[in-house]
Structures are given as C-alpha cells and as structure tokens.
Design a protein that fits this description.
Elements lengths: L18 E9 L3 H18 L3 E7 L9 E10 L11 H12 L6 E10 L4
Antiparallel strand pairs: 1-3, 1-4, 2-3
Length: 120
C-alpha cells in the first residue's frame, strides 16, 4: 500500500484520528469476492473500534472504461463513540493494512492512501 507523503499539518480530525481513504483498481469479475472480503474485515475493525465508520464505495464508471473498476475504502471515527481508538495514525494505517492483506492478490496495482482532517 502506498503511504501518504506527509501527515496532516494542522492536526487530527474531531475524533483524534484523521479520515482515511484507500482506493485501488480491481477486475470487474473479482468485484463480488472483494466486496465480501472487505465487508468482513471492515466489520471486524468496527467491532474492535466501536466509534469507527467504515464504508466501501465504487467509482461510477461507464461501460467504456473496460474491465477494471475503482473501489475505495473509507474510515472515519465518530466523535460520539466512547470505545477504543488507535494510538496514532501510523498504528491505525498498520491495522488497516493487516486487515486488508487478504485482498492483495485481487488488486490490480497499488492501494493508494489519502488522509484528510476535519476542517469545520
């Protein structure tokens, strides 16, 4: 997984950990398998961190785009959650990496990571 070039300059989001967005390309034929695996590991992460909101999105692409699809995992922490949170962004990214290792063989290219902090 490629890492962001730098951590946020202004500090973390409202819940202490910035939002994380991870996107990658997959073969259309593998979409169902990847969606099931991502749902499983995101549910496991949500059980571990009860304030976590995790989603999987698919880029809206027309049929002319070919057989590759773009998927994006999103992770944010709800400020109202009272449960365990990762100790740092680095610890959090490593936890996501470990959980997502099972989908690595199905991804075409790298998983790209973007980190955003809450501004307002």
């Amino acid at each position: 997984m490629s890492r962001p070039d730098a951590l946020p300059a202004r500090g973390p989001g409202l819940a202490g950990i910035p939002d994380v967005f991870i996107y990658y390309r997959v073969e259309a034929a593998d979409e169902a398998a990847i969606r099931a695996r991502v749902a499983d590991f995101q549910m496991a992460l949500c059980r571990q961190f009860d304030a976590l909101r995790a989603r999987l999105l698919r880029r809206h692409e027309g049929p002319a785009e070919g057989t590759l699809l773009t998927l994006m995992e999103t992770y944010s922490f709800d400020s109202a959650g009272s449960g365990q949170r990762p100790a740092s962004l680095e610890v959090w990214l490593a936890a996501i990496d470990r959980a997502a290792a099972q989908i690595a063989p199905l991804i075409q290219g790298d998983r790209k990571v973007e980190v955003f902090e809450t501004c307002a």
